[in-house]
Amino acid sequence: MKYKIVKENNCTRKNFGKYKAVAVHNDTVETEYIAQEIQDNSSATAGDVALVMTELTETIMRHLKRGDRVRLNGIGLLKLEIESDKVDTPEEFNVKKNIRAIRLHVIPESYKGKQEMYEGIELHSAHPEV
User: Fold this and answer.
1) How far apart are CA 68 and CA 57, in angstroms?
2) ∠ CA(120), CA(39), CA(46), 5° rounding?
3) Strand, coil or helix: what is 116?
4) Cβ 81 vs Cβ 114: under 8 Å
5) What is the pTM of this model?
6) Nearest C-alpha neighbor of 57 from the set 83, 35, 40, 39
7) Model confidence over 64-116: pLDDT tens digits?
8) For a tag site, which of 4, 30, 119, 129 has the least CB within 10 Å?
């Protein structure tokens, strides 16, 4: 996994002006590519895999939008969380005004304190001269 060092430019953050590592994402792997890869490693056809992935996506999204949490073996727990402004009293709260965003949270599966998703990651600078 590649990373680069960037300066925190948001003056509202406590670490303003300091440097941090951020992930560099060079490629985006599409559904068709994943389906082909699974076909190459199993007896399922790419079309079968794409169909199942489409149904899986629609099913997961439907449950998340209903407020359910979704646990996927080997991946972890998915859930939607709300980011909102703070108000002094419940009466002051306005959905349109105070809700800033809805975000997808993925909590990696763990077994005895180990999260396989993060094991074996090798970090490499995107700018080796740094």
Assistant:
1) 14
2) 125
3) helix
4) no
5) 0.75
6) 35
7) 999 999 999 989 999 999 999 999 999 999 999 999 999 999 999 988 888 88
8) 129
